[in-house]
């Protein structure tokens, strides 16, 4: 009990001293807060706080704290802290999570890149890459052979000119220009279906009607209606040359059972002169050489077994990607037309045939064209192949084809759709099988050409990423990607050089065949865009072919055609289209007087020739 009695005061003293120290510390903190905030209330409170233990006099000062006081953070003043200060804990955690996520994504991307690099070095992938290189070399070889055929004609013309034959661009033998020989030449009717009026039409028409063919020649410009701007423009052109040529404008009306072009061609054949021995179908968007009609007629006279003579255009890109895609699309086909003789290909822009074949409806070709025909050249080529008839292409039958300066990519896409839509039309079961085979081969080769470049991008990305990633470095070290890329680069350069060479030779040949016409140049070609167009066109062709197969319809120059069983079953005319898709020709326009003439002069001409329509302003 005594022990417990003595311990009680000790416990009380210890408790009182602890309470005093706590109160003293609290008072000191209030004093610091009052100095920091300037609030005197906390100072009064701290000065009034005291605790007296039992037995302590009231005059004694409160105990001071025996331990150092922690400094309190000063309260915020004014606006909140800027973002440059230390971020809160949540923000630091968010940044850490974002960094971890980025690291995980980077690791996943490296893993995918390494896996793709290994996959593209497998035996199957290597086969496809070597196959793409072989396609490049095959195209380069074909263009090299075509350039040799065209260059042979250039050398022959130069030898003739060196020997004194200044008119070698018209004929091989100067004796053919004798009046007695010219009088025996057969009559030729030139039928040109027109649609719209564009920036190059006047120049093209002038080259077509100023032919230096010595025999009888008539021109039939066929339009669907007088509201077509081409009607007014070509009528004024005929008035300008009325004393120098036999030409007229024929209004064919709207087609109901076939394409508008075929309808215009058949109406032109019906209106041609009864003494015409040959009929030449021309598109209005190509420039003809002065001796083209004579060269084609000479071959037809030399070999009566020829069913159709044809040629092919040389596209002159305007600078847009769409125009280069069209140029690239035509270049592989030009190989089949540069044979200098027999060919299996046919281009509807230039076709010379026997006029009696249409008068007699030989092989039912008029019936096949009129009843549901969509493509003139594919239909006639199918008939020629079915009956084993001869199609030839002279080496001089290459024509400059200037493309519209405003040819957009969407118009190129619709042109590609039109070209693939042709494969959906057919006149017989054999023609259908040939179109399906052409569809499959072109489909396979197009994407087979593009795939190696996609794989090459993966190999290049693997090489560039290897120094910064161990897994990618391991994949790059164990693959043959760079070797494949190097081989593809060599094949691509070979292909582009061969394409450049053929284009150069054909431009040179066209300039020699038209010495008085506008001289074309290779300097306007952008070969960087040519390479891009090669990839774009080959990538889009299968997509366009698939869409054409499932849609079975196409809108071309404001007219929508529907196919059923390979023939046109329905035609809808849409007036919303203002321009043709390829040539950029105006389908509708406003009347105005010609540039360079006064209003009074224009009114006087119109009064004198009131029956002639005005020219459309382009």
UniProtKB/TrEMBL annotation:
Residues 48-97 are annotated as: Disordered. Pfam families: Glyco_transf_21 (PF13506). The chain crosses the membrane at residues 126-149, 443-464, 484-503. InterPro entries: Ceramide_glucosylTrfase (IPR025993), Nucleotide-diphossugar_trans (IPR029044). It is an enzyme of class 2 (transferase). GO terms for cellular component: membrane. Its EC number is 2.4.1.80. Coiled coil: none annotated. Keywords: Glycosyltransferase, Membrane, Transferase, Transmembrane, Transmembrane helix. Its main location: membrane. One of its GO terms (molecular function) is ceramide glucosyltransferase activity. GO terms for biological process: glucosylceramide biosynthetic process. It is a multi-pass membrane protein. The keyword ATP-binding does not apply. It is found in: Membrane. SUPFAM superfamilies: Nucleotide-diphospho-sugar transferases (SSF53448). Pathway: Sphingolipid metabolism; Lipid metabolism; sphingolipid metabolism. The keyword Glycosyltransferase applies. Belongs to the glycosyltransferase 2 family. This is ceramide glucosyltransferase. It comes from Aegilops tauschii subsp. strangulata.
